[in-house]
Design a protein that fits this description.
Blueprint lengths: L1 H10 L5 H51 L5 E3 H6 L24 E3 L5 E3 L3 E4 L2 E5 L4 H6 L10 E4 L3
Parallel strand pairs: 5-6
Antiparallel strand pairs: 1-2, 2-3, 4-5
Length: 157
């Protein structure tokens, strides 16, 4: 039996051209389906990462306002510089001030704490803006980063 199997295996030299082409066609079909899906997953991940940066920063602002109850607002730069926030992520934290319209991220000491930002680019041609958004409003947002339109605002206006 062993000799019979060895003879049969020795006669098999490789794959035919047709078999090779069939495998290539199957791989191409799978790739055509998978590549757009992976692109959407990446867009959704980037969108979720910006929302996560915002909720983490709101938590840091909560600690800041607990220790500084007399303050009415704080910027992401102050939170970072004072050690309340390790990294603001994609949130603008380069200048200090009290207005999101001037290109900074501002947190207001209200109940609940709210965040306002300028437009944050999370992907090519796609932005997200927070306008007086609380953690509850950010978490309630069920939009996806791969959806249109290119500019999104939380809360929706």
């Amino acid at each position: 039996m062993k000799n019979y199997l060895q003879k049969k295996l020795n006669n098999e030299k490789g794959m035919t051209l047709i078999e090779l082409l069939a495998v290539i066609v199957i791989i191409a079909i799978i790739a055509a389906i998978a590549i757009p899906a992976i692109g959407n997953i990446i867009e959704n991940s980037r969108y979720s990462a910006v929302k996560s940066d915002a909720t983490n920063s709101i938590s840091a602002a909560n600690i800041y306002f607990t220790e500084n109850p007399d303050k009415t607002s704080v910027s992401a730069k102050v939170l970072k510089d004072d050690g309340y926030l390790d990294s603001p992520g994609k949130l603008p934290a380069t200048t200090t001030g009290t207005a999101a319209g001037s290109g900074i991220t501002v947190f207001t000491n209200s109940n609940p704490i709210k965040i306002s930002t300028p437009a944050i680019t999370y992907s090519t041609g796609k932005t997200l803006t927070f306008t007086n958004a609380s953690i509850e409003l950010i978490n309630a947002d069920d939009k996806k980063g791969s959806e249109d339109p290119a500019a999104k605002t939380i809360p929706a206006q």
